[in-house]
Automatic annotation (TrEMBL), chains A, B:
Protein name: Amino acid racemase
Keyword entries, A-Z: Isomerase
SUPFAM superfamilies the UniProt entry points to: Aspartate/glutamate racemase
Record-linked Pfam families: Asp_Glu_race (PF01177)
E.C. numbers: 5.1.1.-
Amino acid sequence: MSESFLLGVLGGMGPLATLDFQRRLFDATPAQRDQQQLPSVVWNVPQIADRQQALAGTGPSPLPQLIHGITRLNQAGASHIAIPCNTAHHWYDALSEASDAPILHIVDATLAALNQAADKPQRVGIIATHGTLAAGWYQQKLIAQGIEVIEPTAQELAEWFVPGCYAVKRGELDEGGALLVRQAQALFDRGAQTLILACTEVPIALAAVNAPFLPLTFDPAQALAQRCSQLWQGI
Amino acid sequence: MSESFLLGVLGGMGPLATLDFQRRLFDATPAQRDQQQLPSVVWNVPQIADRQQALAGTGPSPLPQLIHGITRLNQAGASHIAIPCNTAHHWYDALSEASDAPILHIVDATLAALNQAADKPQRVGIIATHGTLAAGWYQQKLIAQGIEVIEPTAQELAEWFVPGCYAVKRGELDEGGALLVRQAQALFDRGAQTLILACTEVPIALAAVNAPFLPLTFDPAQALAQRCSQLWQGI
């Protein structure tokens, strides 16, 4: 454990996903007493322009507010920064430039976890926002490893993913879970062997409705939390 | 909702209680979308001297580390500060002096909640650390309202409360819950009509073991979260 380690969490996207990420940090860290737990400073300010609307061209950019949060976390002394929101990584390069502390990339953490799996899949489905899918980071890195990628259709996103995601943001986990289960099932039906749940609302909702296929999924927030905990533990 | 509102949370005491408090803030705030949720910056740094040992004279004071956290929260722009740890309120006056942002007092929030209860109790038990009990804030304010106070004995604290509390800090909620149920039951047996669970580990552990008497308890962390949410909502 490093004396100078302090994890900055750029959260608020959404606020519930930020709590979920903190719980994952806690669970990922073996500790017999408080003092062994990972130290963090968490910017959980959800008054930030909608990322999905911004990338669809129907709303203002969240970049100034994201940079404000990054600046505050640096001022608070963060040695590393994690962003438990896949879509916000659209602005990763600009945020990295604005940050003295290195920002861990959620896609790198996820691919590292996937590569450590005992049974490496050949066909991987991705549940994500339009913005994350359009950015293409997951697809590029998976294809580079010879893995076939199965994506939601535009109609599936409109009918299941987007309303499911916003239901979670309203705290309606059962409603959101039911919609997101349909989205997940469609990807399995098209041949996916495992799913990357690349939007932080999705695993929360699927867990809330006890989706039976959860063991077949990869959660980027979990991969990112594990990477942060390993850094703290000096692994 | 105030443009300039930003809740600073001085957490880390312990780290799990800090997560629990954030969930209470979330649940206490009616919101249809992310942007309506309470904005916060959370200092969750558990590398801080043990408060119970400090007050028992067997360890160093946590005051410098508490002031460091308060300073960081002020630098991050906090408009108000909450401390979801009863024992840390032992240093309330010194922390208030070091803070530009007002610090909400957990005892004031709890007494306000007690006074709003439909059926105001005549005999109240308190589960708390040696330090909180020795400080006497809860007792003084309850007695001033004509309420009789029932406290744990030194033997009960040593056998049930202290080991129960440290079990929670290790993440062993079932073990901690079983010990703290015995502490609670002893206070009910001596005539308490309701209990103030004045140590943030206690309600977490009692909920984990589904203690049947939970509806008969007051949780200062919950009262503090409600007060913070009301401020954000402009109530």
